[in-house]
């Protein structure tokens, strides 16, 4: 396993992270979740990503139980706040009230005194950004989190936050968590260039395009039993069109020439971007964890990148106005 700094921050994270969206507390049982986390540690993964909204807190609780007793300084733990966690008007968003209360609730479920990275899961246009950033800064100063990050914020929103933080002396954002893959290149237009200049690292989600880039979905065939494509877990229907699936199958010879799996090539592709600090992967069994970590350290040369672009053509989405799921 190789490790990278998150932007210009000093913290080092494994290139492959383990996330638990739709897995812990939902798609897989506790024993399977524990096996995946144990496999992650065995393979050198030190970075775990979750959110308070995943399975309405169950994902955090399961992860907290699994990590209990593990030396706290040996791993980097990230969670998020924004989406509704209750039924009342103050149970969502990025108000000071919701941020502080949600952080305390997450710490309780995760059974820890602090998280390493606390992220705004989306931007809240209903709350003054100064209020949001003040609340995050207070959590840093209280030792409840080491660093602050954002997820699916636009370049303009990130830039505004950086200006306010500099003017008011707040801790700066160190990470951005966008969707990014061979099939979803939206961050390349504005977010990645801004973040590269400002010392913010990308922690990308869905680097395998929700499993499509593994090649397991075949054009004209039924979707694999038990896959995201069969039980409605947010997979983009555009990814499952025959045109897309045919193009993805045509990536197989490139992976074969490299001697790696389709999944590892897709992960290596996002890690080829020097602004990417880590790629978040999910797993329902430890074998998937062991397979994904093989992508760490794999380098793709310019000719391989050219062949990939040639195969995919105009399929990748690049519109900066588009955002998605997790």
What is the secondary structure topology, with strand pairs?
Layout: E1 3-5, E2 12-14, E3 16-19, H1 30-42, E4 47-49, H2 58-67, E5 76-81, H3 96-110, E6 115-120, H4 129-141, E7 145-151, H5 155-168, E8 173-177, H6 191-198, E9 201-204, H7 228-231, H8 242-249, H9 252-258, H10 262-271, E10 276-281, H11 286-292, H12 302-312
Parallel strand pairs: 3-4, 3-10, 4-5, 5-6, 6-7, 7-8, 8-9, 9-10
Antiparallel strand pairs: 1-2
Computed structural class? alpha/beta
By DSSP (H or I, 4+ residues per run), the number of helices equals 12
Q: Compute the number of strand runs.
A: 10
Proportion in helices: 25-40%
Largest sheet strand order: 3-4-5-6-7-8-9-10
Q: How much of the polypeptide forms β-strand, as a percent range?
A: 5-15%
What shape does the CA trace take? globular
- The CATH homologous superfamily is termed NADP-dependent oxidoreductase domain
Low-confidence stretches: none
Task: Return the CATH architecture.
Answer: Alpha-Beta Barrel
Report how far the terminal alpha carbons are from each other. Answer: 25 Å
Q: What order do the SSEs take from the amino end to the carboxyl end, as H and E?
A: EEEHEHEHEHEHEHEHHHHEHH
Provide mean pLDDT, rounded. 93
Q: What's the domain count?
A: 1
- CATH topology annotation: TIM Barrel
User: Class in CATH?
Assistant: Alpha Beta
Biggest β-sheet, characterized?
8 strands, parallel, barrel
Radius of gyration: 19 Å
């Amino acid at each position: 396993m190789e490790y990278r700094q998150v932007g210009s921050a000093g913290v080092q994270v494994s290139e492959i992270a383990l996330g638990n969206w739709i897995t812990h507390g939902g798609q897989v049982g506790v024993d399977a979740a524990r096996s995946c986390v144990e496999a992650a540690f065995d393979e050198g993964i030190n970075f775990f990503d979750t959110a308070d909204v995943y399975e309405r807190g169950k994902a955090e609780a399961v992860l907290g139980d699994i990590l209990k007793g593990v030396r706290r300084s040996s791993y980097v733990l990230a969670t998020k706040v924004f989406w509704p966690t209750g039924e009342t008007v103050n149970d969502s968003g990025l108000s000071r009230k919701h941020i502080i209360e949600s952080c305390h609730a997450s710490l309780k479920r995760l059974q820890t005194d602090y998280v390493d990275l606390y992220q705004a899961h989306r931007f809240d246009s209903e709350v003054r950004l100064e209020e949001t950033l003040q609340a995050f800064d207070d959590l840093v100063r209280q030792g409840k989190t080491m660093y602050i990050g954002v997820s699916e914020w636009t370049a303009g929103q990130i830039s505004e936050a950086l200006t306010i933080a500099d003017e008011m002396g707040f801790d700066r954002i160190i990470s951005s968590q966008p969707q990014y893959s061979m099939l979803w290149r939206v961050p390349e237009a504005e977010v990645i260039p801004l973040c590269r200049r400002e010392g913010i690292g990308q922690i990308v989600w869905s680097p395998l395009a929700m499993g499509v880039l593994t090649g397991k979905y075949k054009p004209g065939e039924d979707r694999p039993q038990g896959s995201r494509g069969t039980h409605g877990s947010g997979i983009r229907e555009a990814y499952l069109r025959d045109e897309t699936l045919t193009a993805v199958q045509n990536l197989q010879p490139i992976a074969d020439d490299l001697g790696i799996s389709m999944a590892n090539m897709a992960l290596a592709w996002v890690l080829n971007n020097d602004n990417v600090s880590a790629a978040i992967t999910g797993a329902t069994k430890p074998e998937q964890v062991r397979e994904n970590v093989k992508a760490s350290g794999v380098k793709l040369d310019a000719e391989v990148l050219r062949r990939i672009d040639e195969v995919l053509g105009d399929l990748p989405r690049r519109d900066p106005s588009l955002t998605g799921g997790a």
